Amino acid sequence: MFKQIVCLLALIMYFSPEPALTHEPSTTSGVSVNKINDHLYQLTCAGGTPVNLMLSTGPDGKLLVDAGRTSSVDQLLEALDTLGNGDVKYIISTHSDNDHNGGNRALGNGTTLIAHENTAKRLSGAYFAFPPLPGRRIPDLRVTHDFSMTFNGEVIQFIHIPHAHTDGDLMAFFSQSRVLYTGDLLLADLIAYVHPEFGGDALSYVNNLKSILDTLPTDITLIPGHGPNYTLEQLRDYYKMLKFTSERVEESWQRSETAEDVLADDRLDQWAHWNGSATTTHMNIWIPDLFRSFSDAEHGRVVSVCDPMTRLIIDEGVQAAVAWYRQARQESPSGYACGVDELNNLGYHLLWRNQLGDAIEVFRLNIEAYPDDANTYDSMGEAYMTRGDKELAITYYEKSLELDPLNQNARAMLAQLKESD
Ligand SMILES: [Zn+2]
Questions:
Q1: pLDDT at 94 over 60
Q2: Ligand 1 mean position to 315 CA, how many Å?
Q3: Exposure string (b/e) for 49-72, b if CB count within 10 Å is 16 or more?
Q4: Given this model, what pLDDT does residue 23 score?
Q5: Among residues 46, 92, 293, 318, which one has the fewest Cβ atoms lying within 10 Å of its Cβ?
Q6: How far, in Å, from the CA of 226 to the mean position of ligand 1?
Q7: Residue 301: is it exposed, middle or buried by C-beta count within 10 angstroms (0-12/13-18/19+)?
Q8: How does pLDDT run across 31-77, given as a tens digit for each residue?
Q9: Residue 376: pLDDT above 50?
Q10: Surrounding residues of ion ligand 1, Cβ less than 5 A
C-alpha cells in the first residue's frame, strides 16, 4: 500500500482538474461537518482556535487525517457514526500537537496510526533524556518520507516537509478531490507559528508555502489546520505577510538589530488583525522565530537547554538543572536554544510525570526568564491547579489574563476555579 514518491509536488500537477465542491457546514454538537464530495469531509472541532481534520469514508472504511482535540473526542465519535459505515481503519497524524491528536487513543487499537518518525517520538511522550510516557498511543507505522495510499478510490499523497511547523510535518493531498490539507503548515487568517523546540523553522516554513504557490495548480482548495479554507489566490495574499516579515527580519539581522526593532515597525500593523492569543499566533512570537532561523542558518542549530536539563533532573534533581540554566544563560546567552517554549514544555513533561514540585520550579524559572510572557503564568496556574492550590492558581491565571486579555484558557480556568469556591 505504501510507496515512495520521488517528486510529489510534480505528481500533484499531473492529476486532471476536478474542482472541490464545498457546501454549507452542518454542526454535530461541537464538530461541524463540511461535505466536500461523495466520500470526503472536512470536520472542524470547536474549542480554542477551532481545528480542522479530514475524513475519507466509503467502501474501504474510514480514514482520518488528524483526530482533533481530546475535549472534542465524544463529538468526533458521534459525527463519525453519522458519516458512512465501517470503522476508522487509518489515522494519519500531520504533526505532534495535542489539538491534532486528541482522538488517537479513543479511536481504539483497531485503527492503524501513521506518523512521521519525529512526530511518533513526540507522541510517545519521550522528551530529550526523559523516556516515553506510559499509556500514550504510539504510532503503529513510522514514515520518514513522502508516501501515498489509495483509499476509497482516491490516491492520497502525504508530503513530508522537514523543519517547517515542526520536524515531522505531513500534508495530505486528496488528488481526485483537488484538496490539500496542510495541517499547521498553514494557519489561515492567523500569524504563522512554528515550534523551534520541535525542530520547526520559520524560514523553511516561508519557503515551503512559496513552493506550494509556485507548484500547485490554481484549482485546488487548501484546508488549513486552523482557520477558513483558502484558494491559492488567498494563499498568495497570506504569503505577502510571510515575505514582508522574513525580508524585514533579514535586513535587521544583517544590521545586528533586534526583534524589538522589527516589532516597532508600524508597517507590521496591517496584519495586526491576524494576531491570535499571545501564547501562539502572534507577531511578537513570529518575529523572534524568524531571527532564530537566521541565527541557526548562520551558526548552525543550537542544542536545546532541555537536553542537558533533562539529564540533570534525572541525575541530580531539579535544583541542579535550575542552577545550570541560570549560569548557562549568563555565560553563553546564545549557546543554547532557550526560547520560552523550551522550559514550558519541560515543565509540562514533569507535570505529566507527576513531578509536580519539579514542574513548578521549572515554570518559576521560565517566569524569571520571560516575565512578560502571558503563557508562563498560565502554565504555572495549571501546575498549582493540579496540586489543588486554588489561591495560587487564581493568582497566576489572573496575571496571565492581565498580560494577555485574549487568553481564553486562563479565563475559562478562572471561571472554573471561582465557581468551585
Ligand atoms: Zn494545531
A1: yes
A2: 34
A3: bbbbbbbbbbebbbbbbbbbbeeb
A4: 37
A5: 46
A6: 6
A7: middle
A8: 999 999 999 999 999 877 899 999 999 999 999 999 998 888 999 99
A9: yes
A10: 97, 99, 184, 225
Q: Tell me, in angstroms, the distance from the centre of ligand 1 to residue 256's CA.
A: 33
C-alpha cell belonging to residue 101: 491528536
Residue 358 burial class via C-beta count within 10 angstroms: exposed 0-12, middle 13-18, buried 19 and up: buried
User: Of 205, 116, 212, 225, whose CA–CA distance to 164 is shortest?
Assistant: 205
**Ligand 1 mean position to 336 CA, how many Å?**
26
Is the torsion defined by CA of 360, 363, 365, 367 positive or negative?
A: negative
The single-letter code of the amino acid at 288 is P
The predicted pLDDT at position 278 comes to 54
- At 293 the pLDDT is 92
pLDDT at 302: 81
Q: What is the mean pLDDT of residues 263-271?
A: 96
Residue 150 has pLDDT above 50, yes or no: yes
Q: Compute the distance between CA of residue 376 and CA of residue 245 in angstroms, rounded to an integer.
A: 26
How far apart are the C-alpha atoms of 8 and 164, rounded to whole Å?
Answer: 17
**Separation of alpha carbons 268 and 126, rounded Å:** 38
Cell numbers given for 284? 511578537
Strand 40-45 vs strand 31-35: parallel, antiparallel, or unpaired? antiparallel
DSSP 82-115: HSSSS-EEEEE-SS--GGGTTTTTTT-TTSEEEE
